[in-house]
Amino acid sequence: MADVAAHVGVSRQLVSLVLADKPGPNPRTRERVLRGAEDLGYRADTAAQLLRRARSRQLGVLFTMEHQLETHIVEALYPAAAEAGYELVLGALLPTRSERRAIDDLIGLRCEALILIGLAEQAPAHLAKVAEQVPVVEIAQYTGATGTDSVRTDDAAGVRAAVDHLVDLGHSDIVHVDGGELPGAAHRREGYLAAMRTNGITERAEVLSGDYTVESGVTAARTLLERDRLPTAVVAANDLCACGVVETLVRAGVRTPDDVSVAGYDDSRTASLPYLDLTTVHQDTGRMAEIAVRCAVERLDEGRTHDRVDVLEPALTIRSSTAPPTPER
Amino acid sequence: MADVAAHVGVSRQLVSLVLADKPGPNPRTRERVLRGAEDLGYRADTAAQLLRRARSRQLGVLFTMEHQLETHIVEALYPAAAEAGYELVLGALLPTRSERRAIDDLIGLRCEALILIGLAEQAPAHLAKVAEQVPVVEIAQYTGATGTDSVRTDDAAGVRAAVDHLVDLGHSDIVHVDGGELPGAAHRREGYLAAMRTNGITERAEVLSGDYTVESGVTAARTLLERDRLPTAVVAANDLCACGVVETLVRAGVRTPDDVSVAGYDDSRTASLPYLDLTTVHQDTGRMAEIAVRCAVERLDEGRTHDRVDVLEPALTIRSSTAPPTPER
DNA sequence: ACCTGGGATTAGCACGTGCCAATCCCGTGT
DNA sequence: ACACGGGATTGGCACGTGCTAATCCCAGGT
C-alpha cells in the first residue's frame, strides 16, 4: 500500500481510504489512486487487515467431505454469508486431522463464529468449551451443548410423512433401514415407529440396522431377500441406503416400485438419478444455511445470548419409486 | 501471549520461544509457560504470525466440491503438505463465486503457492498471470500455461489398458462413452481410439458423447438399447458414467458382465460398490498429491524455475464387471 | 487583514507476533 | 577478587493495515 502511495504521490492513509471506499477523498484523487493500485497489481494483505480490524467478519465452517448434503449446505452458506456481510473460511474434518486441530485453526484465523455441519460421526467433545469462546451453530445436528445454536430438519416428521404416504398408497408391510447411531438416525427411526403406531400397524414394524451407506442398503436388502416374503415397502434412512436397497432388489429380479416401493431421505443427487427417481424427503439446505448464518449474526451483531434451536419442516418429494402395492400373485 | 507472560511472570518473548519450541528456555521455565498457556486457553493468532513471519508456509488449494476424486485428492494433500511442513488453505470454486475471487482470497491469505485441482469445467483464464506471482501446480489437468507445473495420470494409457484388457478377454465390439470437452476427456478418447487401432479393430470403434455424469451414461446406454445388436463391451470415461450405463442396461434385462462388459475410470467409491464392482482405471491420488506438494516445495525452497510436467502411469483394477463375451445365442 | 468552516489530506499509534541484538545471571578458572 | 563464558532471559523493532485525531488548504464572510 505504501508502494501505491509513493507511486501516486500521496500518503499511504489516503490510499487506505480510497480502497476501503470511504467518504473523504476527492473523486479525482480517488481515480488516480485506483489507477495506481491497478498498475502495481496491489492486493490487500488479509493477514494485516485481520490483525488490525476490530472485526474479522469471517465465519468458520467445519465439514467433512463425505456426504453430498454437506457439499450442498456449504454451497448454500456462501450466498447467505455474503448477504450478511461475512466471509467463509473452510475447515475440513478428515480422519488424519483432528477436529480439535481444525477448530483451533479456524479460531486462529479469527473466525468470529463456527458453523458445524454435523454429519460427521462424532461431534467435537469439547463443543461447550469452544462455545464459550465463539458462537457455535450446528447444522443438521443437535448436541444440546450450552452456548450452541442448532438448525435441523424435523427428521421424525420427514420419515412420518414418507410412511404416511406409503400407507395412503395401501402399504402396511413397511420396513425401515436405519442409520444406527449416526446423527439424525434416532429421530428418523422414532418417526418411523411413531407413524407405524399412528397408522395402527405397529405389529408390522421392523427396523433393520444400517449406517447411511449404500453398502448397508445392500446388506439390508439381502437380508430381506432371504425370506419367504418381501415387505411391500422400504423406508431407508437416507438416499444412499435406499440406492443400495433398490439396486440389490433389481438384481434379484424384484422391481421398484412394482414389487417393492422404496423411499429415501435427503433428496440428494442420488435420489434424482433417472433410473432411481426416488421418493424422498427434501431438506431445505438453502434455508438451513440462511438460518445458520442468521444465528451467528444474531449472537455477533445483536447480542443474543440464549440458545436458539430451529427445527424446519421437511417436504416429501414424491417420485416414481413408490406406488400402490400390487396384489400378491 | 502477553497475558500468558504476565500470568507466569516472565517476558512475552520467552513465551514466544517456548511455544515455538525453540532452544534456549530452561526446561523448568518451559514447563511453567506451557502450563500457563494451557490455563489461559491461549491460541496463537494466525493473522499476526502470518504478518510477521517471512514465510507463511501455507499452500492454497482450489477445488470444486463436485467430484469424489477431488475430495480424495484434497484428503491426500493434507498429509503430503504436513510432511513438507506446510499448511493447507482451502478455497472452494463454486458457481456463485468466481475463480478470480477465490484466487485473490488465497493469495491475500499469503499462500505461497496454489494447487489447482483441475476437474472444474474451465481452468482460470488468467492462470499464466497468476503463475507470475506464485507457483501454480495443476492436478489432473494440463493447460500448458507458462510458470505452471502439472501432475496428472496418463489417461490415454489408462483407457488403452482397459481396452487391451477387454480385447484379451475376447471382445472386439467395444464402444466408448466419452467426457466431451471436459478435462482429460480428450486423452481418454484418444487412448480408446489408439487401442482400437493397435488391436486392429479400428472399424469397430465408436464414440458416444458424454460428460462424466451418471446421466450421460444413461443416455448412452439408451442409445445402444435402441439398436438391433448391443456391443459386447463399453468403456466409459469415468465411473459415474459407467454406473449409468450398467444401471440402464440392468433395467433393460441386460446383465453385466454376462451380456455386456463395462469398464469405468477413476476407481472411485462408486466403482467398488458391491453390485457394480467395476473394472476401472486406478489413479494414485496419494502420489499425485505428494508430487503436487513436491512441485510447490521445489519452486519455493529449492529455486526451481523451469516448468515440470509429471505424468503418472495408471493401474488397471480388474473387478467383476468385465468378463469374456458369451457367444451370441 | 483576520477569522471561520469544511473538505481533503496526513501523522501516529495500535493490532499480536517473530527475529535480532543486547543484557542478565551464575559458575569457573586464574 | 576479577575477568570470562555461556545458558537464560529480555527489549525493541518490524510486518501491513485501520482508526482517531490532527493538520493543511482554500474559499467566503466580517
Topology:
The structure is a homodimer of 329-residue chains.
Chain A: H1 2-8, H2 12-19, H3 27-39, H4 46-52, E1 58-63, H5 68-83, E2 87-92, H6 99-108, E3 113-117, H7 127-133, E4 136-139, E5 148-153, H8 155-169, E6 174-177, H9 185-198, E7 206-208, H10 214-225, E8 233-236, H11 239-251, E9 261-263, E10 280-282, H12 285-301, E11 309-312, E12 315-317
Parallel strand pairs in A: 1-2, 1-3, 3-4, 4-5, 5-11, 6-7, 6-8, 8-9
Antiparallel strand pairs in A: 10-12
Helix pairs in contact in A: 1-2, 1-3, 5-12, 8-9, 10-11
Chain A binds a DNA duplex (30 and 30 nucleotides) through α2 and α4.
What does this structure look like?
- The structure is a homodimer of 329-residue chains.
- Chain A has 329 residues and is α/β, with parallel strands linked by helices.
- Chain A has three domains: 2-44, 434 Repressor (Amino-terminal Domain), CATH 1.10.260.40; 56-154 and 284-313, Response regulator (Rossmann fold, 3-Layer(aba) Sandwich), CATH 3.40.50; 155-283, Rossmann fold (3-Layer(aba) Sandwich).
- Chain A contains twelve helices and twelve strands.
- The first copy, chain A, has helices at 2-8, 12-19, 27-39, 46-52, 68-83, 99-108, 127-133, 155-169, 185-198, 214-225, 239-251, 285-301; strands at 58-63, 87-92, 113-117, 136-139, 148-153, 174-177, 206-208, 233-236, 261-263, 280-282, 309-312, 315-317.
- In chain A, 50% of the residues are buried.
- Chains A and B meet through helix 4, helix 5, strand 2, helix 6 and helix 10 of A and helix 4, helix 5, strand 2, helix 6 and helix 10 of B.
- Chain A binds a DNA duplex (30 and 30 nucleotides) through helix 2 and helix 4.
